[in-house]
Structure formats: structure tokens, C-alpha cells
Amino acid sequence: MTLEIGTTFLPKVRFDANTELRKAKMRDVEQIYTLIKYWAERGLMLVRSHDHLYENLRDFFVLEDEDGYIVGSGALHLLWHDIAEVRGLAVHPDRQGQGLGRWLALAAEREARDLGVPQIFAWTLQVRFFESLGYSVTTREKLPPKVWSECNRCPFYDNCREIGVTKVLDPQHAYMRARP
Ligand SMILES: CC(C)(COP(=O)(O)OP(=O)(O)OC[C@H]1O[C@@H](n2cnc3c(N)ncnc32)[C@H](O)[C@@H]1OP(=O)(O)O)[C@@H](O)C(=O)NCCC(=O)NCCS
Asked: Which residue's CA is the closest to the ligand 1 atom numbered 3?
């Protein structure tokens, strides 16, 4: 898919609108798609196709404001018995820095804990954001091969800039090589 910077427009949203966190519904797909595409065009995340969003909709949380706009998205994708990926984290440009990203990331983490997943990770360029949530930078060698499951479909395969960050939720059951 070719991405042209600046071709995606998001509606202007109110900075102070009340906002609710909930699991995503089918009717949210178009807005999630556009929000992620907006940031993908700016090189900050991978674009997600409609196909991907429909197939993985149950992974997603959204933040909906009182005007009906989706102002944030985030997902927890299960990969293996001991690891899950936090992905699709995006906050509307008009709502940055209000704790919404943290809210979404913590929702994904809560779900991982509820499911008994001992470790979560993300590929990201926003290392400090994840560090503020207790994640640490890791190396590919310390993560199970499953975490590269999508790499061969990525347009940046040969030129990957993303950094792996991980958070151990249950040290006893986390992936062996993640243990100190
Ligand atoms: C990264 C992103 C999700 C953060 O959401 P946000 O709502 O703006 O962040 P929050 O207000 O919840 O910030 C939480 C913490 O992270 C810090 N933080 C947020 N973005 C940061 C950044 N780019 N660099 C450094 N620190 C950052 C905040 O200062 C805050 O720390 P504090 O609690 O110690 O003050 C948001 O900036 C975004 O949508 N970025 C574009 C898409 C993207 O890069 N997604 C990540 C894909 S993995």
C-alpha cells in the first residue's frame, strides 16, 4: 500500500469532551482505520487494512468522546501462551498529552493480566511513552520468534526503525529468555 503524507484528514475534535473507554464495535472500524492511517502516513505506525481491522476487531479498545468521535485506539493481540503484543495505539492529534494513550495501554495490560498472559511487548518509536508505563527496551534475541510474525508483511522489512519494548507481568511464567 502506498502512503502519501497529508492525504488523510481527521475531523477537528473538542479538547475537553468527555471520553469513554470501551471495546471496539464494527461501527468503529472506519474511524479506527482513518486514525491509524493518519499516523502511518507520518511514519509513526503501521497502516492497518480494513481486512486486518475486521479480523482483529476483538483485540481493539477505543476511546469515544461525547460527540461520537473515536479519539483513541489500542489493541492487545495474543501471540503465544506467554506473550501478547500491544499494538494499534493511536490518539487523535487534538487530544495528545491528556493521558489517553496511557489509558489505552493500561486497558490492554489489564486484559493481558486478566487472561493470565505473563508478558506484553510492543514495537514502537515512542520508547519514552512505553518506559513511563514500566516497559523496558529489549533486543530481538530476548523475545520469542512469534513477535516477528508480521515483519515479513511490513513495508519497512529491510529498513526497520522500530524498537522492541517489553513488560513482564508474571516473572515466573514469562518467556524464559526475558528473565534476568
Ligand atoms: C504515543 C501516543 C499513543 C501517546 O499518547 P498520549 O495520550 O499523547 O500520551 P499520554 O498523555 O497518555 O502520556 C503518557 C506518558 O507518556 C509520556 N509521553 C507521551 N508521548 C510521549 C513521547 N512522544 N515522548 C516522550 N514521552 C511521551 C507523557 O509525558 C506521559 O508521561 P507522564 O505520565 O510521566 O507525564 C500518542 O502520542 C500517539 O498517538 N502518537 C502517534 C502514534 C504512535 O506513535 N503510536 C504508537 C505506536 S506503538
From this structure: 101
